[in-house]
Amino acid sequence: MNVWRLPRLRPGMLRVWRRNLLVWQKLLAPSLLLNFGEPFLYLLGLGLGLGQFVGELGGLPYLTFLASGLLASSAMNTATFEGLFSVYTRMVPQQTYEAMLATPLEVDDIVAGEMFWCATKGLISSSAILLVSFLIGAISHWQALLCIPLFFLTGLCFAGPAIMVASFSRSYDFFSYYITLALTPMFIFCGVFYPVASLPDFVQALVGLLPLSHAIALIRPLATGQEVSHLALHIGVLLGFALFTFYCAAVLVRRRLVQ
Question: With contact defined as beta carbons under 8 Å apart, do 81 and 182 qualify?
């Protein structure tokens, strides 16, 4: 088998996605509680508490600024953790993929289905934050509804790297390196909590290369009723990153499962 060939999108990916959905439905209540509860604590503790001291950032109340940043970071975090822990569990301890490959499904179907499922989880998580933000008045503009497809795209963008890490990991402990060295710096530096413009110029240049920066540049203005600048650029970066990491994830998963 040529592990380096371009992956194919086939209907089998939807079967993988549906399988994960059926499993997730059994944990629906605690999962949704977590999706609603965690953002509420962030917004209450940081947005309302710290917001009393910060006032406004970027012309927005701090609560609104924070909420719009969490919309993007939540899709990143949820898709990443699903792509790390759940994919690794199905790949190694449960050997679910071995059973799938005994059917007409191919590795490409598994990887594509998992990426779409990770993106779906990111969409659910960010939509929960959007609803909470509406309920507490942090976000009120109708234009915020246009962010919903961007939640999916953001999750898709971060699903690939997570599956790549899961594909060559030998234990759950290995994920700490990715979370600490990649995920956490993006969460801190890409503009979730403060404007990127407040950073030194060379740091801004580095941050501008990270996908979360482009996700926030799209989602924050849409969520707050502002105009989006460089729309095509940001969408192109996220889509290109998703496609490239899909290819890399497919190659690595083939090497682990087939060779």
Answer: no
60-61 vs 56-57, strand pairing mode = antiparallel
| Angle (nearest 5°) at CA 190 between 213 and 196 | 100
C-alpha distances out from residue 72 to 23, 199, 253, Å: 25, 20, 27
Which tokens belong to 167? 């594909």
The number of beta carbons lying within 10 Å of the beta carbon of residue 27 is 10
Read off the pTM.
0.94
d(CA 192, CA 68): 8
H/E element, 60: strand 60-61
Helices and strands (DSSP H and E) totals, the chain:
13, 2
Dump pLDDT digits (tens) for 5-38: 999 999 999 999 999 999 999 888 787 777 777 7
H or E segment to which residue 57 belongs: strand 56-57
Nearest-angstrom CA–CA distance, 107 and 194: 41
